[in-house]
Amino acid sequence: MNSSWQKLCLVLLATFWLTTAAFAQKRKQEHNYVPLREVKLQMKDFSFPKQDGSVLNLRAALEENKLVLIHYFAAWCHNSNYDVKTMTELYNKYREHGLLVIGVCEYSSPEELDKFIARHQPTYPICVEGDGKKKDRTGTTHYQYRSQIDDQRIWGTPLNVLIKATELQKDGETVARRVHIAPGEVIVDDIEELIRKVLDLKSDTK
To answer: Cys-Cys crosslink for 75: which of 63, 108, 128, 194, Cβ 3.0 to 4.6 Å?
Structure first.
C-alpha cells in the first residue's frame, strides 16, 4: 500500500470517528418533550423509602395535597437530567398552593443518585423504587404503567404522572383510575396550564 493511499485511509477513518462522536454528542443533548394527555390508568398506592430512611406514601400525599406529580427518573438519563430543573421550578412555584412533586428514582445505584442530587439539588422529596439493578427493569411499577400506555422506550425515563386529589379512591390499593401523563420531558406551558387550572389559580398569581 503506497503512502498516498495510507493517508487517504487515515483521513477517512478520522472523518468517520469525528462524525460518529459529533452525532453521539448531539444525540446526548437532544430533548424529548412530550405533551400531557389524560388516560385511564390503574395507579397503585406505594410506600417507597427516601434517602433519610423515612417512607413516602402516595395515598397520604394525595390526602394532603390538591395535586401530586410523580416524576419517575433515572439518575444517569440525560433527559431526566434536563427535566429535574423543570420539576424543581414547578415545585418551588406551586408548593404553597397545593402541588407536591415526588421524584421516584429508577434503575440507578445509590452512588448515581447521590451525584444526581448533589448536581441538581432538587427541593422536592425523592424516593427509590427497587435496588438500582438495571436487570430488574420490567419488575417495577414504572414499567407496568408504561406498558399500559404503550410506551416503546427501552428505559422510559423520565415519566411524569399527575394525579388530582379529586381522583383519589377511598379504599383499596388503587389510588386513582384516571391521570394525566407525559412519557418524556414535560412541556412547561402545557403542564403549567393544567397545574393552574387544578389549583384554581388566576393568571396573575405568582
So the answer is: 108
List the one residue out of 122, 63, 68 whose CA is nearest residue 99.
Answer: 68
Statement: residue 14 has pLDDT above 60: no
Looking at the chain, list the stretches that DSSP marks H as alpha helix, in order from N- to C-terminal side: 3-29, 58-64, 78-94, 110-120, 141-148, 188-198
Lowest-pLDDT range of 25-29, 78-82, 88-92: 25-29
Domain ranges of the chain: 1-30, 31-198
Contact 70, 161 (CB under 8 A): yes
Prediction pTM value: 0.84
What DSSP letter does each residue of 126-140 carry, written as one string?
EEE-S-S-GGGGGGS
Report the run of H or E that residue 47 belongs to, with start and end.
strand 47-49
- Cis check: omega of the bond before 122, within 30 degrees of 0: no
Residues in the chain: 206
Cell matching residue 170: 377511598
CA distance 194 to 204: 15
CA distance 186 to 33: 6
